[in-house]
Design goal:
Number of strands: 14
Distance between the termini: 61 Å
Oligomer: single chain
Shape: globular
Helix content: 25-40%
Largest sheet: 7 strands, mixed
Structural class: alpha/beta
Strand content: 15-25%
Number of helices: 13
Radius of gyration: 20 Å
Order of helices and strands: HEHEHEHEHHEHEHEEEEHEEHEHEHH
Length: about 325
């Protein structure tokens, strides 16, 4: 089958960019299951605007890797119909801010059909969305709308932060019988990491401690994981030990791992690019206050975007969480 040679070469652990890890994961899924399809604007001949699907149409044909019209509602609607017929479509929304024409299809059809059918119908659809800022893009190209989807029952929402997770979480999302919104941190696309395609990945919705610590927990996901790791390194120079918890999944969220980390450190700061108002950090703060109030040495603090439209690119560095804002939150938490 096309792609087999490259697949064999990829069997050993090796370094690759996050974008290439997704490409390899899609390639493996297309090889293993003839019901897997890839659809989206420019995903075929061009290989996607970020070249994440580069080479897939050449190897698997136009019937498996499909260039769609510029119509997000039509892309998702078609994917729903294909899923009802037994296929496992993986659709790409070209940029985060382009998803909203498809929001009706996602919320009123994709998320609800399993419950509406009393469990008789499954919709194994993966919606890939490059998201987040930091690339100097124009309006509608740097959104972080994950909370809008996490609020909707019936959808699973995940975001990898590294190449290994990008590979395995895509495999798990495609194999899942429920719809998965797969947010890809676009400013991390070309950061390299080790991927072992022969080993089993971590469960899709399980968080992971990526740096141990004793004084405070930084909970984060997607593009902010690297930023939090850098903040933890900086804090170490000041004698502070910060634990970094990569949440990986936004819905369902692994609150047990958050609680376990908080019980170890006593302090929690949640970091995400999305606005803090009604964001994932608000839900984490509420849950941790309910579940382990007496273990808190300080209030749960949040660092994220502001409650405003995403700014022009020349101002985005002031909008996005950075080392100074995270470390200031750490100082505030440690002061209690």
């Amino acid at each position: 089958m096309p792609g087999t040679n490259s697949r064999t070469a990829a069997a050993a652990p090796h370094e690759m960019p996050l974008a290439k890890a997704i490409n390899e994961s899609l390639r493996h899924a297309l090889e293993e299951d003839p019901k897997v399809l890839v659809m989206g604007e420019d995903v075929g001949r061009l290989g996607g605007v970020f070249r994440v699907t580069d080479g897939l149409q050449k190897d698997f044909g136009e019937d498996r890797v499909i260039d769609s019209p510029l119509a997000e509602s039509g892309i998702v609607g078609t994917a729903i119909g294909l899923a009802l017929r037994g296929y496992r479509p993986v659709v790409e929304i070209q940029f985060d801010g382009f998803v909203f024409p498809a929001y009706d299809q996602i919320v009123t059809q994709l998320a609800k059909m399993h419950a509406r059918s009393m469990g008789k119908v499954r919709l194994p659809v993966v919606i890939r969305i490059p998201y987040g800022g930091g690339i100097g893009a124009v309006e509608h190209h740097s959104e972080s709308p994950e909370a809008l989807f996490a609020h909707v029952a019936g959808l699973k929402v995940v975001s990898p932060s590294n190449a290994s997770d990008a590979y395995w979480m895509m495999q798990q999302a495609i194999q899942n019988d429920d719809p998965v919104i797969y947010f890809e941190p676009k400013r991390r696309y070309y950061e390299r990491g080790t991927v072992n395609t022969a080993a089993a990945g971590r469960p899709l919705h399980l968080a992971q401690v990526v740096r141990g610590g004793t004084d405070l927990t930084l909970a984060c996901y997607g593009p902010t994981v690297r930023t939090c790791l850098e903040a933890a390194e900086e804090a170490e120079r000041e004698g502070r030990s910060l634990e970094v918890l990569d949440l990986r999944s936004i819905s369902p969220m692994d609150f047990d791992s958050v609680e376990a980390s908080l019980r170890r450190t006593g302090r929690l700061v949640v970091v995400h690019e999305a606005p803090v108002f009604f964001g994932a950090g608000a839900e984490i703060a509420a849950r941790m206050t309910e579940r382990c109030f007496h273990h808190l040495e300080a209030p749960v603090l949040r660092v994220g975007g502001y409650h405003m439209p995403y700014p022009p690119s020349q101002f985005e560095e002031e909008y996005l969480p950075n080392l100074d804002r995270i470390l200031y939150a750490v100082d505030r938490a440690m002061a209690f």
